[in-house]
Every structure is written in structure tokens, then in C-alpha cells.
Amino acid sequence: MTTRLSRGFPLATTQQLSDFLAGTERRAYKQAVFACRDEDAALDIVQDSMMKLADRYGDRPAEELPLLFQRILQNCIRDHFRRSKIRNLWTTLLSAFGSRDEDDHDPLENVADDRPSYQARTPEGQLEQHQTLKIIEFEISKLPTRQREAFLMRYWEDMNVAETAAAMGCSEGSVKTHCSRATHALAAALEKRGITP
User: Fold this and answer.
1) For residues 179 and 90, is the Cβ–Cβ distance under 8 A?
2) Which residue, among 53, 37, 15, has the nearest Cα to 86 in the 3D structure?
3) In sequence order, which residues have a C-beta less than 8 Å from that of residue 80 and are 6 or more positions away?
4) CATH code for position 70
5) Using CA atoms, how far apart are residues 83 and 86, in angstroms rounded to an integer?
6) How far is residue 74's CA from residue 20's CA, in Å, rounded to a whole number?
7) How would you label 82-98 residue by residue, b for 16+ Cβ within 10 Å and e otherwise?
8) Does the global pTM surpass 0.70?
9) Other C-beta atoms within 10 Å of 104: how many?
């Protein structure tokens, strides 16, 4: 296995690789579940992705691990669909929000927030928040594959446009288009359910 330095960063230690994998496992699993809608397959995809990262890129700088892992994860998800010959499970939802340019604005950002700083003050509020998050997850799972990938990387993984484009193997313009369509479709779907930002 060859090793190299990238932009002067030291190579990842075994502990850094282990910490990265532990920290990303839950989110990666969610992405895989959204993609294949099969918990067992999602677990296999995540485990396979982690093994590939450790085997092939464990000698890279720690700063490179998130982008490399996203590429591997997305490739493993695509391989799953190739093997099972399942294509086009999701249909594109038409946007109800015209042609506004909202590439860097997430219309869902104020709908629900499960960070510790946000706490519903009553049991009813907590239940409503939990139900809203479940609806959002369900609607994300219905997005077309490329829209879902772009949306999750940008707003779930907090990757910038350039990083997302590199992970998806497409142009930055395509990432912006996918994100815009995804956020409009999600907002429209939620609005139909009476959930507004």
C-alpha cells in the first residue's frame, strides 16, 4: 500500500481512522437506508464501505477521510442497485416553488431541529417534533437518487458544493440543481401535509 502526504497533512493514525468510522457510522447507515429501503442491505453497504475505506485509504490524512468515505459509500449503494437490478425506485416530484434560485438555502432548516440546543418544552411538543422528523425522513427516502445524495451530503453531512460534486462525480452546477430540486420537492411534500417552515 502506498502512502502520501496531502497538502502537508500528516497521515491518519489507526485511532483517527477508528474514531472517524465510529463517528460516521450512524449517519452513513441512515443514508444507506434512505437509498435502498432495506435495513439489512443498508448495514451490509455501510460495513462494506468502512472495510474499503480502511483497506484502501487508511493511510490517507484524516482530513481526506470524510470525502473518500462518501465516494465509497455512494459507489457501494450504486453497486447494490446494479447487483439487484433495481432502478428508478423513486419518481421525481414536481416543484411547487417556481424557479427561485435557492441553491444555498434549505427551506427545511426551520421545520425541525433535533440538536440538543432545541428542546420541545412539553410532551406534546416533543411528540410533534418526533413525528415531523419521521415524515421528513420518509419524504427524503422518496427523492430521486441523485437529489437525495446531494441533499444529504449538503445538509446532513454539511459538505460544501465542491466537496459534494467531487463525491458524486458531477459538476458543482449539477449539485446545485439536485439540491434545489430536492429542497423544493421536500418543502412541497411537507406543505401538503400541513408542515411549513
Assistant:
1) no
2) 37
3) 35, 36, 41, 44, 45
4) 1.10.1740
5) 8
6) 17
7) eeeeeeeebeebebeee
8) no
9) 11
Q: Is-contact 21 54, C-beta < 8 A?
A: yes
What is the domain-level CATH number for residue 132? 1.10.10.10
**Residues 22 and 71 occupy one common structural domain:** yes
**Buried/exposed code over 31-46 (b: 16+ C-beta within 10 A; e: otherwise):** bbbbbbeeeebbeebb
- Containing domain of residue 72, as a range? 14-84
Which tens digit of pLDDT belongs to each residue from 137-175?
888 889 999 999 998 888 877 788 999 999 999 999 999
Convert the pLDDT of each residue in 57-105 to its tens digit: 888 888 899 999 999 999 998 888 776 653 333 333 333 333 344 455 5
Question: Which among 63, 84, 105 is the end of a domain?
Answer: 84
